[in-house]
Amino acid sequence: MSQEYTEDKEVTLTPLSSGRRLLEALLILVALFAVYLMVSLVSFNPSDPSWSQTAWHEPIHNLGGSPGAWLADTLLFIFGVMSYAIPVVIIGLCWITFRHRHNDDYVDYFAIGLRLIGVLALVVTTCGLAAINADDIWYFASGGVIGSLVSSAMTPYFNQATGTLVLLCVWAAGITLYTGWSWLTIAEKIGGAVMSVLTFASNRSRDDNRWDDEDDEEFEPAPVAKKNSGPGLS
User: Cα–Cα distances in Å, from 68 out to 37, 90, 205?
Assistant: First the structure.
């Protein structure tokens, strides 16, 4: 049996252009900042020093230190529970930017404007939904200042259920503006996934029933023949 051996090719490191160097360096810094921000939010403690806490007599509990405590307090005050999604969004944007770093096509500013409008709609509606339907976190409003303003503006005109439906409609429109996905396509994808799960469960149930029937047939006792007793001897 013959084996083929290939020579190791020498790997050459091609230097990046000035723009690429700056882009990748910025992406690394932004990604590290997002990780730091998530750690600060998760380890937030109300007794830590912040702009809403004027006096404290305990050591700082936040893993991000004093800057992390200030950042977490400010974000929770403005955005509420949505603050925990901000680092994830930042990481996602960094990944998308890194994936399209070789794309030198024409920049569509109209599409960028639509995406920004979609992001704004998503932020406002998410904070509003949290303010209407979620409980407060620590001493902050669940939707932050933004959610409280949206909730206060909608309260005179809508009740809780109607306001939630209105915000969900705007939220869905924001998803379309930001991603460019059609909700018809999303509905088809969701329907296809649900049908796949139901089909799998149905086939699994039929297989289980078939195996149960085979087991019953295998362990079914054989019929016992009755002996005919003759007339007794007198």
Answer: 7, 17, 52
